């Protein structure tokens, strides 16, 4: 088992660049299924999840080449596709569910293993199933698979989502672009990754209005064409580096993303006393003195992203004063809090609220990161702790960050990977 070995240290300094967003690249790869021929994606992150999605597409009959050196993925989609996304792959990566919409509309049938819950919550699929049902598919569960059948094709319809789910919006959108007639999605998710997906679909020939708003109107077309598309910069990876700079009181420039995609987060940090210089393709973050603790409440975009919640916990655990962090999207996303307590943080969790009283420094200990963002946040906490912290969960981090520890070392951190026999400390 691999783990990170983190030596507490001083302020981070320097420049770091992010590449394309994991949470867009995976969906763009699924969207390639909608058009026969070669789709080319650039700025694709070299992460485990991209490799899993590539394997999933290969098993559906596509030719997939991924060149990590150039960040390019080419996907050759045949006219005849398989329609089963098997459990082994879906279990490894929930985002596999995003082939459901494309396969249903392209093949008239899709069977995708149900991923089940994970470390952050139960993660239902009812909104995905409701949406496809409204488009005329027969959706049911069969031996652990979600099966959607539409032998006569899909028909556009008005769909109002109970919650602006990212995944459900994406699946319904990708199905509706080739459905007959018009679909209206009310209460659609508005994340930049959704805008990136819709933008690529329009370039493939789809007709979509209201991109980026909570109401999207899709007029189905009969066919789409493959394109070349650059993945939008990763705002969550950028947010990770921004919090790293702030909570170590460093001076870091983060490039490769659009600061407007993190507007709410940057405003919060400015409220806390962090200095943020916004530039076209990034930000410079400086934190000359101990920041003030700030209340944070996670919300769908453009609110504070749930994927940065674990970093806000670490930030408030070290800031001046006390604050409340409220998690509104995932009911079990406070693993980081209990591990932070092991590092000496003053944190109390009550349901979906965490109350933190800031401490000047934390004290090192062995901790466990239960998912991508929790493990990354605990490494940052280790940077602000006296002594050597070990963080289990490297495999999670590799799912979402192409070069996490190397980038941290580039900013002056002492973070290394080490392999240890299972159970050894
Ligand atoms: C996407 O997950 C991201 N994953 C998540 O990032 C992110 O946290 C989440 O959006 C919210 O921003 C990818 O894009 C691969 P949702 P998704 O559907 O699509 C409930 C990371 O760290 N819900 O918007 O699964 C659900 O249980 C990951 O990169 C239903 O109840 O998120 C959750 O409570 C973690 N029924 C809420 O909605 C449904 O059918 C939001 O889920 C669908 C969702």
Automatic annotation (TrEMBL):
Protein's cellular compartments: Cytoplasm
GO molecular function, one term: UDP-N-acetylglucosamine 1-carboxyvinyltransferase activity
Binding of phosphoenolpyruvate, residues: 22-23
Pfam families: EPSP_synthase
Active site: 118 (proton donor)
The keyword DNA damage is assigned to this record: no
Family the UniProt entry places it in: Belongs to the EPSP synthase family. MurA subfamily.
NCBIfam families (UniProt xref): murA, PRK09369.1
Protein name: UDP-N-acetylglucosamine 1-carboxyvinyltransferase
Species this chain originates from: Angustibacter luteus
Name of the encoding gene: murA
């Amino acid at each position: 088992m691999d783990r990170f070995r983190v030596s507490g240290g001083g302020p981070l300094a320097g420049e770091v660049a992010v590449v394309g967003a994991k949470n867009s690249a995976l969906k763009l790869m699924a969207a390639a299924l909608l058009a026969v021929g070669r789709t080319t994606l650039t700025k694709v992150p070299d992460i485990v999840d991209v490799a899993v999605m590539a394997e999933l597409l290969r098993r559906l009959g596509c030719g997939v080449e991924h060149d990590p050196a150039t960040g390019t993925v080419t996907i050759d989609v045949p006219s005849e596709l398989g329609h089963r996304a098997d459990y082994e792959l879906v279990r490894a990566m929930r985002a596999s569910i995003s082939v459901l919409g494309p396969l249903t509309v392209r093949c008239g049938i899709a069977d995708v293993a149900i991923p089940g819950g994970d470390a952050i919550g139960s993660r239902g699929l009812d909104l995905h199933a409701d949406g496809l049902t409204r488009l005329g598919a027969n959706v049911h569960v069969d031996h652990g698979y979600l099966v959607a059948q539409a032998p006569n094709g899909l028909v556009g319809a008005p769909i109002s989502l109970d919650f602006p789910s990212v995944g459900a919006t994406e699946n319904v959108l990708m199905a509706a672009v080739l459905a007959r007639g018009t679909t209206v999605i009310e209460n659609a998710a508005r994340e930049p990754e959704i805008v990136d997906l819709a933008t690529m679909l329009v370039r493939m020939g789809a007709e979509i209005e209201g991109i980026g708003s909570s109401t999207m109107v899709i007029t189905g077309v009969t066919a789409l064409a493959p394109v070349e598309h650059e993945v939008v910069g990763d705002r969550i990876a950028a947010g990770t580096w921004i919090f790293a700079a702030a909570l170590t009181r460093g001076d870091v420039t983060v490039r490769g993303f659009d600061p407007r995609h993190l507007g709410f987060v940057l405003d919060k940090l400015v409220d806390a006393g962090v200095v943020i210089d916004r530039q076209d393709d990034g930000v410079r973050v400086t934190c000359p003195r101990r920041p003030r603790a700030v209340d944070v409440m996670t919300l769908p975009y453009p609110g504070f992203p749930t994927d940065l919640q674990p970093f806000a916990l670490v930030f408030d655990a070290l800031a001046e004063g006390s604050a409340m962090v409220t998690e509104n999207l995932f009911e079990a996303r406070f693993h980081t809090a209990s591990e932070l307590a092991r590092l000496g943080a003053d944190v109390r969790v009550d349901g979906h609220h965490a109350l933190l009283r800031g401490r000047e420094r934390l004290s090192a200990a062995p901790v466990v990161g239960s998912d991508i963002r929790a493990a990354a946040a605990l490494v940052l906490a280790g940077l602000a702790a006296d002594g050597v912290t070990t963080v289990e969960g490297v495999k999670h981090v590799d799912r979402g960050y192409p070069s996490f520890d190397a980038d941290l070392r580039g900013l002056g951190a002492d973070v290394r990977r080490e392999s240890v026999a299972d159970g050894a400390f």
